[in-house]
Specification:
The complex is a heterodimer of chains A (342) and B (326). Chain A has 342 residues and is an all-alpha fold. Chain A has a single domain (11-293), classed as ABC transporter involved in vitamin B12 uptake, BtuC. Chain A has 16 helices and two strands. Chain A has helices at residues 11-30, 34-60, 67-85, 89-114, 119-139, 141-144, 170-193, 196-206, 208-213, 218-244, 249-252, 255-268, 274-300, 305-311, 316-330, 334-339, and strands at residues 150-151, 246-247. In chain A, helix 2 (34-60) packs antiparallel against helix 10 (218-244) and helix 2 (34-60) crosses helix 12 (255-268). Chain B is mainly α. Chain B has a single domain, classed as ABC transporter involved in vitamin B12 uptake, BtuC (Orthogonal Bundle). Chain B has helices at residues 5-25, 27-58, 65-80, 84-88, 92-122, 129-151, 177-199, 201-211, 213-218, 223-249, 256-271, 276-296, 301-315; strands at 156-157, 167-170, 173-176, 251-252. In chain B, strands 1-4 form a two-stranded antiparallel ribbon. In chain B, strands 2-3 form a two-stranded antiparallel sheet. The model of chain B has no long low-confidence stretch (mean pLDDT 89). Classes of the chains: A mainly alpha (342), B mainly alpha (326). The interface between A and B is large, with 41 and 40 residues.
Chain lengths: 342, 326
């Protein structure tokens, strides 16, 4: 029921997913440090963000470069509401809903405008619109705080000033809020891709012409998929705003975040949704724990001029980019696709 | 050919915008802005022409195209550094020689890297649009990082040769010399491409390939080889556009190409994918709109190109000059 009749299939994969979900479910009690908790929160948020992207990329077969824009809309929605009207739960809900509504409307407009002609238009137009949104966020300083972003107060229940028994505080509430919303959203997306509508999306991916010939209105289905994905991404953005108590263009709108999403979906496995869980976990762990290790490796090559430059932790993306190309070429189904029994 | 408003209207957009701007802006500013817009359009055309040809012929949308623009700009820097004596002196022949060497180097290196890129990255994913987008985006990520490895993360200044800077006075309007040079180069490239496509056998095959690739293959021509040629020309043009743009801006950053690529995409969408004439008109439209709106209402200038794109898409979903595909 919960998994919408689409279990992971495959013993190793099931074990892997069960471990990740179980660890995430009790993370605050396993890892008391705030850094580890932040990692777990980031993983939960990225799972929603990338699962919603997978619905577009893996299930519908369309590439969007504007997913971070929708993510940002949710984050800025909450941020602006909390900055302007003070810390309160009503503001959080209104900000998140406003961001989501904007995301849905923009996604629908972009979809209806571009998908009418060819799917490639969608990729091109989303890239243009996303870069416009990025410029807009950094120039509309009165609203968005420009390049510096917005730092704001969250409702008191979510802060460490809110004491629970046993040495736990509001950080625990924040974590379980993020975990619960992320879990619900993920299960919702799983429901969508396994619904009759999800089958139509897959049919469009496999053969658009045939789907159209069967009388399915591909434009509407694609646009609907885009709008649902945008809504989920914006809610993930709202969660990020609550987690960081900060929203800025680099954290939500940057091209490198878009690259992260692409990497997670492709490494995890396109068209599986579970790939998002595996990919987001691996990627985040690597970013927090493996990337600093690169610095040590770079120091080992301190005499060799070019080696040191390419092993610098800031050149992390160079290696991920190469990995990305290799995976698209040689393992197009990603980790989950490999482990899954058909 | 049937002459009707339906056919004529797309051709009238550009003159209509230019004329409409005249009474609003005033003659002397209008002259300056129009030249600036056309010059920017000419540079954008160089960057867009290759991509539109590549897409038209082989249905490949190369999202790493922007990297070739950046590459051209950096090659310009690398070449002009040892030629500083030529490019900073006041002799116009030496200035011109340094400029020509930089252009040629950018052309050759971008073309060569483009050839390698086609062989290594694009070759395996023909006919798979989704993987094409992903793989070329991967190529863009790697290229962007390599620029930082090779030339550092900071912006590098690049100075125009002195005889190329300064302006010519026409009435009370000061027209920058470099803009005229850029305009001439862009129009030269357009003329050369048009001649190549319309007057040579190779051009005939390319145009035939755009319209119906299978038929050309059935007739015994190797469209693949033709395509490699087009890919090289396309990336070489992007690199040349990059160095001309870099000298115009006098600053090179690792993000230069990616920023221009967004405009290039808008141009392709406006002009119609696969059409050389369409990309020229699209580039001019984007250049002029940027300059006119930047002067009249600087606050909304950022959105003006997006707005232009949306309006044109609402009117003509395939762009102004769609290419007939069978």
């Amino acid at each position: 029921m919960l998994l919408s009749g689409d279990p992971p299939r495959g013993r190793i994969l099931s074990a892997m997913l069960a471990t990740i979900v179980a660890v995430l479910a009790v993370a605050p009690f396993l890892f008391p440090s705030t850094r580890a908790l932040a990692v777990a929160e980031r993983i939960a948020i990225l799972i929603v963000l990338t699962a919603s992207y997978d619905m577009l990329l893996g299930y519908t077969g369309i590439v969007s470069f504007a997913h971070t824009m929708f993510f940002g809309m949710g984050a800025y929605g909450v941020a602006i509401a909390l900055t302007r009207f003070g810390a309160g739960w009503g503001q959080v809900v209104i900000g998140a809903l406003a961001g989501m509504l904007l995301a849905i409307v923009v996604a629908a407009i972009v979809g209806l405008l571009s998908l009418r002609v060819r799917a490639i238009f969608f990729a091109m137009i989303t890239l243009a619109v996303a870069s416009f949104a990025q410029i807009l966020a950094s120039t509309m300083r009165d609203w968005t705080g420009g390049e510096d972003g917005l730092t704001f107060e969250v409702p008191k229940t979510l802060t460490s000033a809110f004491r629970l028994g046993g040495g736990y505080n509001g950080n625990l509430v924040t974590y379980y809020l993020i975990f619960t919303v992320a879990a619900v959203l993920f299960l919702f997306l799983l429901r969508v891709v396994n619904s009759p509508m999800g089958r139509v999306l897959q049919a469009i991916r496999e053969n658009e012409f045939r789907a159209e010939a069967l009388g399915l209105r591909t434009l509407w289905y694609r646009t609907l998929a885009g709008a649902i994905a945008a809504a989920a991404a914006s809610l993930a953005g709202s969660l990020l705003a609550l987690q960081l108590r900060y929203t800025g263009p680099d954290a939500t709108l940057s091209f490198s975040l878009m690259v992260d999403i692409l990497l997670i979906v492709v490494i995890g496995g396109m068209g599986t949704l579970y790939g998002a869980i595996v990919g987001a976990t691996i990627m985040t762990m690597a970013q927090y724990y493996l990337q600093p290790a690169m610095g040590g490796l770079a120091n080992a090559f301190s005499g060799v001029p070019l080696m040191q430059a390419v092993l610098d932790p800031d050149r992390w993306l160079l290696w991920l980019g190469l990995l990305f190309i290799a995976i698209v070429y040689f393992f197009p189904t990603g980790i989950v696709g490999r482990l899954r029994t058909p | 050919m049937r002459v009707s408003l339906e056919n004529l209207a797309p051709k009238l957009v550009l003159p209509a915008i230019v004329l409409a701007a005249l009474p609003i802006i005033g003659v002397s500013n209008w002259l300056v802005l129009t030249v600036a817009g056309l010059a920017m359009g000419a540079m954008l055309f160089l960057m867009a022409a290759g991509l539109t040809l590549i897409f038209g012929l082989m249905d490949v949308m190369n999202f790493a195209h922007g990297a070739f623009i950046t590459l051209g700009a950096y090659i310009g820097i690398t070449v002009l550094a040892p030629l500083a004596g030529w490019s900073t002196g006041h002799s116009w022949t030496l200035n011109l020689a340094a400029f020509a060497v930089a252009l040629l180097a950018a052309l050759v290196v971008s073309g060569a890297v483009g050839w390698g890129f086609e062989r290594l990255i694009v070759r395996g994913v023909y006919g798979a649009p989704l993987r094409q987008i992903l793989v070329t985006t991967g190529g863009l990520i790697v290229a962007q990082q390599l620029f930082i490895v090779l030339w550092g993360p900071n912006a590098i200044p690049l100075v125009k040769p002195p005889t190329f800077s300064g302006s010519i006075l026409i009435g009370s309007a000061a027209i920058e010399k470099y803009r005229l040079i850029a305009l001439a180069l862009g129009m030269g490239a357009f003329a050369a491409l048009t001649l190549l496509l319309n007057r040579t056998r190779i051009g005939l095959l390319v145009r035939a390939g755009v319209e119906n690739r299978e038929m050309v293959e059935v007739l015994g021509y190797r469209v693949r080889r033709l395509f490699i040629g087009v890919f090289i020309i396309g990336t070489a043009l992007a690199g040349t556009g990059g160095v001309i743009w870099a000298l115009y801006q006098e600053l090179v950053t690792p993000q230069l190409g990616t920023e221009m690529f967004v405009l290039v995409l808008i141009i392709l969408i406006i002009g119609g994918l696969g059409s050389i004439g369409g990309s020229l008109i699209g580039a001019m439209l984007v250049g002029l709109t940027t300059n006119y709106v930047g002067f009249l209402a600087p606050t909304i200038s950022l959105g003006s190109n997006i707005l232009l794109m949306v309006l044109i898409l609402l009117w003509r979903p395939q762009g102004l000059f769609p290419v007939a595909k069978s």
